[in-house]
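User: I'm putting together notes for a lab meeting next week and I want to include a structural view of one of the chains we've been expressing. I don't have a solved structure, so I'd like a prediction I can at least talk through. The sequence is below, exactly as it appears in our construct file.
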Amino acid sequence: ELMNEPMSIHRHEMFDTWRECTEAINAVIPDMSVSIADVGEASILPSWITKLTGGYMDISSDTETWIKKSKTVFYAWHYGSVPTNIKNMHAISQKWNVPVFGTELGCEEFEAAAASNISHSYWHYSAYCNTGPAFGNRSVPDGTFGACILGWGNGNSSNCINPKSTKSTLVLV
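Assistant: Thanks for the context. Below is the predicted structure for the 173-residue chain, given as structure tokens.
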């Protein structure tokens, strides 16, 4: 991911930037996968809009063509409501000819993505630290690791069901 949860209302410039970065990266590492993402990495476009219009509103036609032809780009997403976000991701994948990857998902999204055959990873970023009062005020920096900059313990993958369970929500598109 080039930028985590990009915040911009300038979709055209954002996607042109993803393209320029990907082209520069692929000039050095030809098979490196690089993400493109929408505002906040949210699943913001309803699937019916993507199916009807292609989802390329405010993206240059050159970049649209590049996305469809790219062999290294993937669409990264984090948020949305199940099943809407899953339907949106299937629509983008089909219309844009790109794999989609849920790069920061909680249990509900993780399980729905898994059941719908979408690449996914669980969000557990802030648990990788032991700095601060919640950990006994250890000596900094010798007795600690990580900054806990976004809090700690916000992810808890043990609350997710077993990936082989039949309880996952399969979303039909």
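A couple of points you could mention at the meeting. Residues 35 and 83 are 23 Å apart (CA to CA). The chain has five helices and four strands.

User: Perfect, that's what I needed.
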